[in-house]
């Protein structure tokens, strides 16, 4: 694998955000002995994202290469996979169109990944930036916006939550190629256009963990996350939270793959969710839409309901998803599982 860093910028109707994001990328410091490229993936935009990116990057005297690709299949995961498939270098950085990487991001990411060859995914700290004042509840829910510290301490986080959000995520391409060559396919569609359904970044982490790779956090990696004023309202956070609940139904395939699963696993999970709703308070759950802005119980209830409704939608596939991950050839525990059932 070529020694260097590929920065993948996935865009959807990004003509307003893209100019400054690309400018920040062209200003990054780059070690002389490594390669660097920017890959912009236009995800079926209806604005001038593609031509604007071309104009900006061709107009700069870059000390690295760039390419602009068009992905007509809607969805963030499809765009990221196109970027990964076209990347030339071992280390890949996901830089969303609203991310401004700090100037030393490449240097530090390369050094950390080189020093920890067992690490497949690396993430850092994100600082929220907006043109308007943040609402009083923002700090409490900043992680929903991929902002703040992901962990309290730096280091290997494989055996804790073991996940890193996509903003600024660094991936070892050879690790990802390894599981893809063994049949890994995402079961999450991820965000599609303006729909608030995500989780593809976490799915990568969970799959690579099951394949035996490590996940790492280092707060010395820093970026600014530009948050549009339209996203800083309570209704947006509610929709976002419901999307988080939905994605959990699919991510269960990874987190529950270590144990035997029955055909009625979806019913067991539904009972578990209903139990959580009861513990939150049936009176709150029944009238949750009337809870006041900033109430964390409302966000919790939205996540639980989002998962419950999505669970019912895919009830016939829930157990199958878990079994498929459990027996996947890229899952390091699959041989043990196959021995048990034979």
Descriptive report:
By secondary structure, this protein is of the alpha/beta class. The protein has two domains: 2-232, Alpha-Beta Complex (Spore Coat Polysaccharide Biosynthesis Protein SpsA, Chain A), CATH 3.90.550; 238-336, no CATH class. It is built from twelve helices and nine strands. The radius of gyration is 20 Å and the shape is globular. Helix 1 (18-26) links the parallel strand 1 (2-11) and strand 2. It has helices at 18-26, 49-58, 76-86, 105-115, 173-181, 200-210, 234-255, 265-280, 282-286, 296-313, 315-327, 334-341, and strands at 2-11, 35-42, 65-70, 89-94, 99-101, 119-129, 155-156, 170-172, 214-226. Helix content is 42%, strand content 18%. Helix 1 (18-26) runs parallel beside helix 2, helix 7 packs across helix 10 (296-313) and helix 8 (265-280) runs antiparallel to helix 10 (296-313). Strands 1, 2, 3, 4, 5, 6, 7, 8 and 9 form a nine-stranded mixed sheet that branches.
């Amino acid at each position: 694998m070529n020694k260097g860093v590929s920065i993948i910028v996935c865009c959807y109707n990004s003509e307003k955000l893209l100019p400054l994001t690309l400018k920040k990328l062209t200003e990054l410091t780059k070690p002389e002995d490594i390669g660097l490229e920017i890959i912009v993936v236009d995800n079926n935009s209806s604005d001038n994202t593609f031509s604007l990116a071309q104009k900006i990057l061709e107009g700069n005297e870059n000390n690295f290469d760039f390419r602009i690709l068009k992905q007509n299949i809607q969805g963030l995961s499809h765009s990221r996979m196109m970027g990964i498939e076209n990347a030339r270098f071992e280390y890949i950085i996901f830089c969303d169109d609203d991310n401004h990487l700090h100037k030393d991001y490449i240097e530090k990411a390369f050094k950390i990944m080189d020093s920890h060859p067992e690490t497949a995914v690396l993430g850092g700290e994100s600082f929220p930036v907006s043109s308007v004042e943040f609402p009083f509840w923002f700090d409490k829910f900043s992680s929903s916006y991929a902002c703040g510290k992901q962990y309290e301490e730096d280091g290997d986080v494989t055996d804790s939550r073991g996940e890193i959000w996509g903003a600024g995520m660094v991936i070892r391409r050879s690790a990802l190629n390894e599981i893809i060559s063994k049949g890994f396919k995402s079961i999450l569609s991820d965000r599609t256009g303006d729909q608030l359904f995500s989780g593809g970044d976490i799915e990568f982490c969970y799959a690579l963990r099951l394949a035996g790779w490590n996940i790492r956090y280092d707060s010395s990696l820093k970026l600014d996350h530009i948050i549009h004023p339209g996203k800083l309202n309570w209704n947006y956070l509610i929709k976002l939270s419901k999307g988080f609940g939905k994605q959990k139904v699919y991510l269960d395939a990874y987190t529950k793959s270590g144990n035997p699963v029955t055909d009625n696993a979806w019913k067991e999970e539904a009972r578990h969710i209903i139990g959580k709703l009861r513990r939150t308070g049936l009176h709150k759950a029944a009238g949750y839409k009337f809870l006041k802005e900033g109430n964390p119980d409302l966000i919790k209830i939205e996540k639980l309901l989002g998962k419950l409704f999505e669970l019912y939608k895919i009830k016939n596939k829930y157990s199958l998803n878990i079994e498929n991950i459990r027996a996947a050839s890229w899952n390091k525990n699959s041989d043990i599982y196959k021995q048990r059932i034979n």
